[in-house]
Write the structure tokens for this entry.
Amino acid sequence: MKDFDNKFYSEQVKIICGVDEAGRGPLAGPVVAAAVIFGNGKIIPGINDSKKLDEKTRERLFTEIVANAVSFGIGIVDHTKIDEINILNASLLAMKIAVEKLEIEPHLILIDGNKTFPSSVQTRAIVKGDSKSYSIAAASILAKVTRDRIMKKEAEKFPHYSWHTNKGYPTKAHIKAIQKYGACSLHRKTFLTRILSKEEQLVLVEN
């Protein structure tokens, strides 16, 4: 994966940033993006697409990435904004926020997927970038771990939905819980149209 990133370095591109997001599919909670810059020669063994790693490995790598990155940023866009501008635009906004939090400006931004966001820095969308690019894969780990931690904490306030295990994704158990107890204030209302009626969506479970 490091070789994939290395081919982008040139006289004009000496600082590369990888960007990815987590949380497009869940029925509740925010979408979280991360941006990561490594030194050219830095390699942390085990970095890969976060979806291919178990939770324990992701947590360990999160700590190593944070300790060894030249700079990193986290962008969070909450469920109300997702309902307002749709999940694609919210994901791109979270990515932009993550890049803006970097302490140094990259020369090139590699973005997972086929869309980019407005930036003064050159951007490049990489389809399946989280399984090709070292820096995008690192960003996928930071985004995934950060979002999972948020949902585990929120699960303490909303125990009906088992977010400590499903993280808000539409598992059968999560959908059944929504149908039984209704939606709570952290659910994405635009994602529930096939699960609850409009009247049911208006009744929020607070705990």
